[in-house]
Write a structure and sequence with these properties.
This protein is an alpha/beta fold. The chain has 2 domains: 2-33 and 75-105 and 264-337, FAD/NAD(P)-binding domain (3-Layer(bba) Sandwich), CATH 3.50.50; 113-262 and 351-407, FAD/NAD(P)-binding domain. It is built from 13 helices and 25 strands. The strands form 8 sheets. A 5-stranded parallel beta sheet has the order 5-2-1-9-21, with helices on one face. Strands 11-18-12-13-14 form a 5-stranded parallel beta sheet. Strands 6-7-8 form a 3-stranded antiparallel beta sheet, with no helix packed on it. α1 runs parallel beside α11 (318-337) and α6 (125-144) packs antiparallel against α7. The protein starts with a strand and ends in a 17-residue tail after the last helix.
Length: 424
């Protein structure tokens, strides 16, 4: 039996492992720094108290029950020793016949050290929980301060990045400002309590990969909700509670949510020439990393230019990762049987983004259709609900969404911080 080691249990890694389950030709080791899989598209709802972490997370070991040829190893990748077909983890070493990198992407601060130090990213569950606590603590501070300028900075939030994450975060915060703040924080209602939600982007449009109709609908909807959208505003610095833009404009705030970009990871043991744009590993048509015979990369961490419909590489979205994971599993099975391997070709199923309560946009490529409002909102809910990893997550999420829909509120606004952490 051949041993396949998968680094990363996100969309790409988990779909590859699931597709190889109970395949007698392979043993599989799934490696992840966490002991759980999580659903990144709903991280912002954890951050804004609409969902609890257990609604979007599921333990790997529970998920792998009954899959006799798959085992889980918790650990962080440290380096590759290709000559020995071995990897070094923070928790030991593993040998492999085939190695697959499926680690996703990390936050890109574009070399701005002050932004990296002071802004709040949202790529992991830990980030989302930190954001939730941070939001709530800043509001509590605002109820106590008597300094109007300080209160304004505490109640001003800047979301950097006009993609789906930025749109979704700004939309839900605008709804909280309207529906939750007056009831939970009466100290902050009335005249003299100035607050702002800014959505800023360095480009000239929101949701750049989507259709012009979606971009216009989103801009109009957010503006009506009270979000102050600033396009062509590229963040240059953030320190001393001041966001500075390349055009010279500034915004005073205690809170910057960074959703402006992602980048790949650099792995020790892989030469520099194997990396392409955005530090993504360059792969061939079957997702094999150039310069290697048995090392592969799938999902956000790879750059594949062999697909005729995407000559500049695929978008870094969930569907690409899912499809690449499933296709690579088929090719692994084909290798054992001596069959011809199938080049990867992405099937674009469409793009969507939720804006707020009963508000969303969706683009379907074939046939070319655009949806907005309540219908697009229902589509978004359905797609994200069925995409969750198991029925328990689906039921929990549906329950929370149903309550939030009818009450326009949520009950998860608790500030919870461990007094200390222990690692072993």
């Amino acid at each position: 039996m051949q041993h396949i080691v998968i680094i990363g249990g996100g969309f790409a890694g988990i779909n590859l492992a699931k597709s190889l389950a109970n395949n007698k030709d392979f043993t599989v080791t799934l490696v992840d720094r966490n002991n759980y899989n999580f659903f990144p598209p709903l991280l912002y709802q954890v951050a804004t108290s609409y969902l609890e972490t257990s609604s979007i997370c599921y333990p790997f070991r529970r998920f792998l029950r009954g899959k006799k040829n798959i085992q889980f190893r918790m650990g962080e990748f440290q380096r590759l020793i290709a000559a020995e077909n071995k990897i070094v983890l923070s928790t030991g070493e593993l040998s492999y016949d085939h190695l697959v990198f499926a680690v996703g992407a990390e936050t890109n601060f574009f070399g701005m050290e002050n932004v990296k130090k002071n802004a709040l990213p949202m790529k992991t569950v830990n980030d989302a929980l930190e954001l939730r606590n941070y939001f709530l603590q800043r509001i509590e501070q605002a109820t106590r301060t008597t300094d109007e300028n300080e209160r304004k900075k505490l109640l001003t939030i800047v979301i950097a990045g006009g993609g789906p994450t930025g749109v979704e975060v700004s939309g839900v915060l605008a709804e909280m400002k309207k529906n939750v703040m007056p009831k939970d924080y009466p100290e902050l209602s009335g005249k003299g309590y100035e607050s702002h939600i800014y959505l800023v982007d360095g480009g000239g449009k929101l949701l750049a990969p989507m259709s012009e109709k979606s971009q216009i609908d989103t801009l109009n909807a957010l503006t009506k909700m009270g979000v102050e959208v600033k396009l062509n505003h590229q963040v240059k610095d953030y320190q001393d509670d001041v966001v500075t833009f390349a055009n010279g404009d500034t915004i005073e705030t205690k809170t910057v949510v960074w959703a402006a970009g992602i980048t790949g990871s650099v792995f020790e043991g892989i030469p520099a020439e194997a990396y392409g744009r955005g530090k993504r590993l360059i792969v061939d048509e079957i997702n094999k990393v150039i310069g290697f015979s048995n090392v592969y990369a799938i999902g956000d961490t790879c750059l594949q230019t062999t697909d005729k419909n995407f000559p500049n590489g695929h978008p870094q979205v969930a569907q690409v990762a899912i499809q690449q994971g499933k296709q690579l599993a088929k090719n692994f099975s084909g290798m054992v049987k001596g069959q011809a391997l199938k080049p990867f070709a992405y099937r674009d199923k469409g793009t969507m983004a939720i804006i707020g309560w009963n508000k969303a946009v969706a683009d379907i490529p074939k046939p070319k259709l655009h949806f907005k409002g309540f219908i697009a909102w229902l589509m978004w809910l359905f797609i994200h609900l069925v995409s969750l990893i198991n029925y328990r997550n689906k039921i929990r999420t549906l329950y929370n969404w149903t309550g939030a829909y009818f009450t326009k509120d949520q009950t998860l606004r608790m500030i919870v911080r461990p007094s200390r952490s222990r690692e072993s």
